[in-house]
Amino acid sequence: MDGSMIGENRERPLLILVVPCYNEEEIIRKSAGVLSDKLKRLAKEKQIHEESRVLFVDDGSTDKTFLLLCQITKEDPRCSVVKLAGNRGHQNAILAGMMTAKERADIVVTIDADLQQDIEALDRFIDCYKKGSEVVYGVRNDRSSDGFLKKTTASLYYKLMQGLGSNVITNHADYRLVSKKVLDALSDYREVNLFLRGLIPAMGFPSDIVYFDVKEREAGSSKYTLKKMLTLAMDGITSFSTRPLHLISLIGCIVVLLSVVMCIVAVADWILGKNVPGYTTLLIVTLIAAGVILLSLGVIGEYIGKIYMETKHRPHYIIDSVIWRENIGDRADTDRKRTTE
After folding, report:
1. Among 73, 102, 122, 134, which is most buried by a count of CB atoms within 10 Å?
2. How far apart are CA 111 and CA 309, in angstroms?
3. Distance, C-alpha 176 to centroid of its chain
4. Could you tell me which of 138, 134, 135 has the C-alpha nearest to residue 117?
């Protein structure tokens, strides 16, 4: 494909599916087969360019995931692999895949390796792009497949994020289409605390939404632990909103006003000669004040920690190796150069 046309072809765009993987040996072969077959059908229907492919990003897997991916690239010319040096996290793995695909693709779609996100929705993603959208968000119809705890916490999380001013889309994970124009703009963002679910909507490109049903995981277990979800939530809040700091100031003012009122009441009672035991009042005021102070210090500490990490300018990821065929009919080449971004 002529490189000069990349980013301009809306009739038959070159699509790269970016698939982050971490310890997915139980399902990676099936995922590769399903995703590759989908690209073949779309290419045959002339919906996408015939050089479209699947790009797996191995996020420092400790099982046989990378070995299996190496075998898959030999068997299927549509599959390529980026191996990261160490586990860099889901968001950084997605970014590594998108930046690797940036110079080669018209559009990139990020999708998880567990096959829970409906790959058949890809047709509607492409239709939206052809109609002029630069970003297309995959949004699940409901959360019926989730347990009560996850469903409840997810609902509270999206409401909290939106209440704090972050432009996140409810029930959108990281199943999305982005154009080369968006990727070029995204490459200019250098922030270490990466939260793509908030960052991409904030960029302001024309967008659309495609709704889909979530499927049951066919093999293996979710690698998105509670700790990782909480970390992502904290990154989202502190990366896109300063409202917690404003709330601390507001709470501080309220506590000060209440303290002034209590002082006036105490002085008035003393002047009137009333017997004021004071123990309960003193205890309550002390506990409230201590709680507010500790909470405030914790929130401020989160922001200071983010500033500290940003000042280091560390790379989001280090690429250990890339297995890529410049043309699908060629033999796969392995680039062992270390790349940082």
Report:
1. 122
2. 28
3. 10
4. 138
Mind listing the pLDDT tens digit of every residue in the chain (341 residues)?
444 444 457 889 999 999 999 999 999 999 999 999 999 999 999 999 999 999 999 999 999 999 999 999 999 999 999 999 989 888 899 999 999 999 899 999 999 998 889 999 999 999 999 999 999 999 988 766 566 666 676 677 777 766 766 677 888 888 999 999 999 999 988 877 778 888 898 898 999 999 998 877 555 555 555 565 666 666 666 665 666 766 777 777 777 677 767 767 766 766 776 655 665 567 667 767 776 787 777 778 777 777 766 676 778 889 999 998 877 766 556 655 555 66
Which tokens sit at 116? 């829970």
Tokens 């049903």: give the residue. Answer: 213
H or E element at residue 91: helix 90-101
> Dihedral sign, CA of 260, 261, 262, 263?
positive
Strands 53-58 and 79-84 turn out to be: parallel
Q: Which helix (DSSP H) or strand (DSSP E) does residue 88 occupy?
A: none
Element (H, E) at 153: helix 148-163
Q: Residues near 261 by Cβ (< 8 Å), separated by ≥ 6?
A: none
